[in-house]
Specification:
By secondary structure, this protein is an alpha/beta fold. Helix content is 47%, strand content 12%. The chain has four domains: 1-81, no CATH class; 155-316, Substrate Binding Domain Of Dnak, Chain:A, Domain 2, CATH 1.20.1270; 328-478, Rossmann fold (3-Layer(aba) Sandwich); 495-708, Rossmann fold, CATH 3.40.50.2030. The protein starts with 28 loop residues before the first strand and ends in an 8-residue tail after the last helix.
Length: 716
Amino acid sequence: MKENKHTEHHHGQSGENPLEIAPHNHRAVIGFDRNGIPKVLVPVSGEAHTHVDEQGNTYTHTHDGDFTEDYMKAVAAYRKTFPSKQDVLEQTPDPAVREMMLRMEQIGIDTAFDRFDQQQPQCAFGLSGTCCRVCNMGPCKITPKSPKGVCGADADLIAARNLLRGAAAGAAQHGMHAREVILMLQWAAEGKLDLPIIGEYKVRQMAEAYGIPTKRRQIRNITKDLTKVLLADLSRTEPDPYRTIQACAPKERQETWEKLDILPISAYHEVFEAYHKSGCATDGDFDSIMKQLLRCGLAFTFSGVVSTSIATDALLGVGDRVTSKVNIGALKKGYVNIAVHGHLPVLVKEIVKTGQSEKFVQMAKEKGAKGIQFYGICCSGLSAMYRYDGVIPLSNAVTAELVLGTGALDLWVADVQEVYPSIMDVARCFKTTVVTTSDSARLPGAEHIGFDHHHSNVQEIHTIAEKIVTRAIESYEARKGMPVFIPPYEIEAEVGFSVEYVHKHYGGFGPLADAIRDGKILGVVNMVGCNNPKIMYEKAVLDVCDVLLKNNVLIITNGCASFPLMKMGYCQTSDFAYGKCGDGLREFLAPDMPPVWHVGECIDNARSSGIFAGIAAEFQKNLYEMPFAFSSPEWSNEKGIDAALGFRLMGITSYHCVEAPIHGAPRLIKFLKEDTKETLHSSMVVDADPVALGERIVADMRKKREALGWEKIPQL
């Protein structure tokens, strides 16, 4: 596509001539990579500007319509890169997934991949972010014929508002998780909840960081003070210092955020303000919307992630490195099989404890079962696997219905987030009982056994857990004779690589820092994120990983993206795993550390950040100076917006294979991919080719190393 620039006449103000301005573009320059993914190279000038014609006459116009035409073509090209169900069947790396997809097809049950095919072609306006339905004067869409919505909002403002609302929703989701766990910790300290505070070490460590007195004080009283601070950051209405930021964020970052005026008041406030600002006829200023986006990112990070991690580790303990079985083949016939699915760990802990007790194991055996076995879906499985024996992680959210399709599950316990309503259709087919436990997340046809809206029955947690396990045993008996199909694929994975474990194993971060300085390790990547059928399921994660390991990049992982890394053998100290590594990385890790360190569930990004911070501290460098990266190749949900944003706010660039809905907004594209390089020292990089994305990460790390003066860069 050719760039159309004026040379004979001028626009805007420049020099002495009030009608003379710098050349600008009438049409955006949108390039395409080899996969047809659009890349806006030069955005169109969307501002009104003045022309001087050959006769000396002046007139003012814009070129919004020209850009609209271009981005619609770009979106059409982007859609062509989406894989079909058949593509997934042929290319997804896990044979268990392939077999279960075929099995579901044979028995006539749709999966996420079928429904994705049925949705094609997806709405171009939605993909580009230029559809607005905030008020009932719309919905409005941006076209050459209609460059502005009814209220006057242009493409940039509409897309920015949509992105902000997504970030606010993500902050609310992790914020709800935070509220639940922090309150549970508080009630345990108060005696309202009959649970021990296992992570006393974590309570004392964090209390000291917050300036809470600890000497000669009972752990319960220290915990009460700590939870008050965490809850205040979550929910205060009056402006006051965000103490979790003060205690946990690097001073350089705090100064940067203060200068940008993006320090949040509280997580609740910033979510309120985000929906307020982005509502009809309130805030029409693009820069103001972007500032609120960054505030939501900080609230998400320090209340939704950091505070949640603190409270979880305080109540349930940090956990340790363990070896866990993984994948669908680990399902066991003849047992009362219970799957826990979601993100709230406290009730899950009690359910597992109850189901493993002698009383309930004997009850199961009396019904003809061999015992009771627990499995994990999504983050509940990842949180539990390194804390409690015998909880086997099976899949991320996208393929949860494939797990149900085995017919092996007697009870499915669902709490919040990443629980698709489609699981109910599969559960009914196999007479699997589904129990919901949170008033925030109900499913039609499911039984509800859990806390009420006000948590007035929280003291009944043990009774609730017993009711759920009893219901599982009843379901087992009622399901006798149901056909079971279990693909024979299982593997072992090393998990539980916390900051504490790294300290224990290496005696601190010094050896790790030395390996990075000496070039044995090129850099470190945190690879996370949910999954998305817009990119090849789970293969994108592995393709990026292969490039990184080959180039001696150490990988940290958590959340849904960690499942293919576990299932396909990357979280092992095996010949296969070491064979993926470059010489330097292999030399440093072998024989007892895997090339991918699994740190836990999605809130355990806090662990990854802690490892990053520990390494940077050894060099006395800022995070943005270090060869670090964040990558969520397949991200899909609203929390994914905030997760990437949180790391960019820390100065660490994020890398993705799926584009945000911003194609139609040149100013928003520029903000995310260019402008934040100056303000935050980071940006968002997108390439639908996962191999190319991995190579970009490596290239950027090499630049960081060169800037640091580390000349010993490993060569292939």
